[in-house]
Amino acid sequence: MASAPHTPNDCRAMRFFRIEKPPGVPHIALKLLKFVGVSEVKAERYRYAPMFVAFLIIIALPKIAFGYPDFETSIIGLAELFFQTNRFVGVLLLVLYHDTLFTLIRDAESFTKLVLQESSTVSQYLIAKDAQISKITRLYLIALLVPANFYSYSPILSTLWKYYNTPGNDTTPEFILSMEENFYGLDIRASLDHYLIFGTIMIPTSFLCALVGTAKLVSILSVIKYCTIYFELVTLKLDEMKQKQSFHLEMRTVLRMHQEALHCADLLKELTAPIMLLQLILCILVWSSMLLYFTVSLEQPPGVPHLILKLLKFLGFGERLRDRCRILAMILAYVFILVIPKCFFGYPSFDVAIIGTAELFFQSNTFCGIFMLFFKKPKLDQLIERAKEISKKVLSESSPAIVQHLNVQHALIHRGTRIFCIVVMYAAHFYVFLPFLSTLYNLYVAPRDVNETVYYTLHMEENFYDLPIRTSAEHYLLFGTIMTPMSYLCAFVGTVKILTIWNLTAYCIVYFQLVQVKLQEVTRDNTFHQELKTIIEMHQEALGCAKLLESTTSLVLLQQLVLCVLIWSSMLLFFTVSSAKVAYLLHESSWEIQTPALRRDLLLMMLRAQHPVGISAGKFCFMNMEQFGKFPPSRNPSSTRQTPALFVIVTVDALKLKDLRNIL
């Protein structure tokens, strides 16, 4: 059977991914950069000029100069502006720093040429790694076509479907915009003709944003990964030279390889420094712009958590599919940036593993909790609707005393929510900048005349996909660039989760207080026969809200209880193991060759170290890992349900006796 002929587009795509040059250099990333105008040829660099002008005219100027219909839309529009500015200005910096970039590429080609001159494990490693990176890059670029097409076409297709399926006597359908902005006086939110003009412009603009952002991301990550491989090749060459005992033959080659790898690292630092600084500043601007969101005036009607509803909608608790996709992106960031590195890439020491595990439990409490609230969204919507009904009924039918109580409590809850948000905002800035400042301080006080490794302070304890983030400045900056928005996301999600549960609980309490105020008023005026039905209805609605609240938050509070116990257990393990480590180090300190006087002192320390160290609850319940591992006792003393805990205790005691016999 004859195969189908290849179309020109297929051939063009195949030519783009075809690599006919030696391995060891990010050729696909260079092709992508050349396509957007990052090139050594001056004429090709002019390609980026119309792209940047399109960004200014279609995105930046409308978002800055033409305002927004409401405050919430302005926050979303500014966040989109900062996000797209990070993309387009980042590539503009690559265009301006093209000399540094292509000097780095030439040095990389010289390095790989030196490696590929001989057939060895080093050259085979380079070829294998190059093929792996090229494959991942191809898959990423092809996979990116799916979300690019979705985000480009879905707003206009969804709007057209709703528009032509809306009954004639129904309200005007909502026009879904690709980006939140007012476009040069066009009525794009109410007029179909104007909306179609805007959509026709935004479809290619959305593809352009995806292209520019992909070019920036792929190029920087590829160059960083290849520079990492160069140092790995130097290490492999040293191991190979050590095994062959060929120091006198290959030492000069290793020195040259190391020198060129260091030069590539210096060029990479010079190239990425302004781009990473820009990304850091824009992440802070996105986060700080939320302060405007938290300082909105008190909204009416009272009795409903308006601020929490805005926060939940911003997080992805909306009615539109486009809004709900936000929470999916948030969960994916949590999985790939926190869960996978903490679970599968290990830790440098046991102490760090305990801290990293506790951090994982803590963040899991935050993200899994908000995800459970998302699954309980129907119940949450019912609770909000019932709260609105109670508020409406109280404001329309109740006496001034009850209305005043509702207004006062509403203002108190709203004020407390705003204060908590602002405090968390400044605390988030502190935790984002503190690791960077601590690292800069360590670099500043480190001695210059001593070859000493400087360890970098991490935002969270983990090994990030085997990158040397604890000792390499480039990889630490890459990790910090990723963790900066992730830290803000953790703070935001945790804040929304806490405030949602607290606000809903506080408002349910207010509803019962309204019943109490109504009862006091009826008792004082002796109007039971007139108001009894109203009181019963208010109490029934308050009970209904309480039942919906329990149904909404039960799973969230259960997983919070479980994870709090796990955090407590892991910290106890850190405490007890640190104490037991003293006995181990004493046993390994060659005590048997010391003088009798020193052996007596060491014996005393070993005996002291055998004493279990831990904490107690109220000084009567000793809290240790054996206690946590103990199953509930059964009526039969010989039951095997206590076997695991007893086995741990017996094993520990046996090890202690064995160590004591060795000492004696």
From TrEMBL:
InterPro entries: 7tm6_olfct_rcpt. The chain crosses the membrane at residues 48-68, 88-105, 139-161, 195-215, 275-296, 327-347, 353-375, 419-441, 557-577. Its main location: membrane. It is a multi-pass membrane protein. The lineage of its organism: Eukaryota, Metazoa, Ecdysozoa, Arthropoda, Hexapoda. One of its GO terms (molecular function) is odorant binding. The keyword Metal-binding does not apply. One of its GO terms (biological process) is signal transduction. The keyword Lipid biosynthesis does not apply. It holds the Pfam family 7tm_6. It comes from the Eukaryota. Keywords: Cell membrane, Membrane, Olfaction, Receptor, Sensory transduction, Transducer, Transmembrane, Transmembrane helix. One of its GO terms (cellular component) is plasma membrane. It comes from Anopheles farauti. This is Uncharacterized protein. It is found in: Cell membrane.
